[in-house]
Amino acid sequence: MAETTTTTEVAKDTHVEISFPPFNSTTFASQLVWLAIFFGVFYLVIGRIALPRISEILETRRSRIAKDLSEAAGLKQQTDAAIAAYEKALLTARQNAAAIAAETRATLTADVDAKRHAAEAELKAKLVTAEAEIAAIKAKALAEVNAIARETASSVVSALSTATVSAEEIAAAVENAAAR
Prior knowledge:
This protein is mainly alpha-helical. It has one domain (33-179). 81% of the residues lie in helices and 0% in strands. The chain has 2 helices and no strands. The chain has helices spanning 28-160, 167-179. Helix 1 runs antiparallel to helix 2 (167-179). The mean pLDDT is 86.
């Protein structure tokens, strides 16, 4: 069997300079033509497709932001109105509570005054009754004092002396002493 080998060799005696294609001066014209074609196509794509889409997106965002801001302003107005209504209701409730408290205070004061007056009237009645009883007891005691004084004077006279004194004389002497 025979072996087949192939090799590729570059001749060493050819001096062909290979340079970077964009810097190769023989291809400048075609490069400029393709640059102009791609620039034109790119300009048309950007101008007709990309920029209108970007403008549409920006306009949508602007309108959405404006809509959100107007909704926020409306909600803020509703919140302010709700706060004002709440404060008004709270003020009304406080005024009602103050009126109820004043009415209750007046009712309780009237009840207490009525009970106090009734108790004072009852105490006055008891005082008048007690004073009448005291006066009756005092009058009775004073009436009995004269009788006790006569008995005591009669006992003292009979114990200290042997003389006899009549009951009328003792009564006159006791009345005379009580008058002084």
